[in-house]
Every structure is written in C-alpha cells, then in structure tokens.
Design a protein that fits this description.
Length: 242
Amino acid sequence: DLGLMVDEKWYPLYSVEPMVRFIQQTPVVDGAGLKNTLENRLGKFIMDKIGDYVDAMGRKAFVVSGADRRGLSKSFLDNGYDCVFGDLMFGLGIPLAVRKEADLKRFAAVLLPFVGRLPFAWLYPTGEKQDIRTPKYEKYYQWGTVSAGDCLYVKRHLPYRLDGKVIATNTTTPADVEIFRQAGIKYLVTSTPVLDGRSFGTNMMEAALIAISGKHRKLSYTELDEMLSQLGFEPQLHVLNE
C-alpha cells in the first residue's frame, strides 16, 4: 500500500515512498482503484450467489481491516450486514473491535497521520511473517458469517476451525485455499479472478488494466468500472466443503 483512502481523504504511508521515489513516467498503483470499484460489488455478489445461506446464519461480516478496503466495507454495509472492523486488532495489535463505520472514520482521522509514519513491516506481515499463523480473536471470526479482507490479515489469526463460514478475500494461493478448506470454511469468495490456481492482488490487477488501457496514467474509478464491465470481471465463488 502507498497509503489509505478513508472518507475521501488520502493518508500516505511514508515508509513506502522511498521505493517509488525515482519513478517519473510509469504509473504506480497499489490497488486502491480496484479496492473501491471491484470490491464494492462483493457484498451484492455474495447475496446473489449464496444469499439464502447467509441469511440463515445472519448477515454479519467481520472485516479484518476496513480502513484500507473502503469498497469492501461499503459493499457489506450497503447490503444490510452488521459489521465488526478489526483494524485496531490486526493493524496495531490493540484488542478493540470497531462496530460502527463512523467510529472507523474517527479512528482513521486521529491515528492514520501517525500510523503513516511507522515502518510498513509494523503494519503488515512481510517476508517470513506472512507464513506465521497465530489463532486469535476467535470470537469475532465465529461471530461473523463472513470474514473479509486482505488474505494475509484473514489468515494471520484464523482459528483452527471455522466450520460452515464464508471467507471473502483476494491474493489467495493454492496453499491458502487448502488452509481454509482444512479449517472447515464452506465458501471462499475471491474479489479478483482466479488465474492458474490463484487470485492475484488488486495492485497487480490494477496495473494490468492500466497497461492494456494504453492511457499511460492511473485510471479513474469510472474508467476502471467501465473496463471491469467490458472484461466481465467479477468476484468468484468457490465451494470448499459441502
């Protein structure tokens, strides 16, 4: 991530800026465009595909990090879900659930100007840390019919058993899918298409869309939406356990 977009305000992550400081012409994107377009369709997609199943269990979504996935969060809120946001738990290690979108925005406004100055590795698992799984915050995973957000965050504290639950995420590898299957997850919904066994990150997919557009610049949300519709891009549903 180059930064976080919350309530129309951009909060840069300053530790990442040195990585891209010398790039002058090539567009640089971190997936924020797709997080606010393609992921905005996820809640409705789930209701269209498995709405009866979700309604039987309750429209409840545990969004592990809502601040950096505004479209994802909005898609659940717009489709009548009760939401718990785990930003403080997963991003800062503070065991405090955020239960209202307004509170999420308030925390973002207060904390992100300072959080943006922290080393990126403090906020997001990198390197070997990506393979470490420490079950935690199980009551929130168990509360939600759907657990949603970045795959590394979802997997980071995933309980050993989540029978019958739904995971909505992206950037999944075959190994990730197997972890979800072994945990008893019934449905996996990926926000980006699965290609050669894995769903790619929004950053890579947005970069690919910019490349094929030939515009040599970042694309607006409207332009991305139009391209997604033309290409037939939509989330995908995978049944992991019958």
